[in-house]
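Now for a typical sample entry:
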Amino acid sequence: MSFAGTVTFKNAAPLREALHVAPRHLIMVETDAPYLTPTPYRGRPNAPYLIPLTLRSMAETLGTDASMLAAQIASNTELVYGAWDAEPVTVDG
């Protein structure tokens, strides 16, 4: 269940309600770049550097510490995509 910058929009109460009922072990965050830029940068192109704004808004909505939510989301992300390899993947294998 991935949440993008729209969770920061004033008119996104239903999305924030969905965040409240979402099991924490399923929550992720995304940019949907270049669209759905979080407030206060709405209207500009979205990019990965804005993820912290979305995450902080999500933490505020959930009434939790942003660093705790970030750790949970990092764990969720690793479960979905796997751990980063110590060695980069190469063409040779």
Notes: The chain has a mean pLDDT of 93. The beta strands are 2-3, 28-29. Residues 38 and 53 are 7 Å apart (CA to CA).
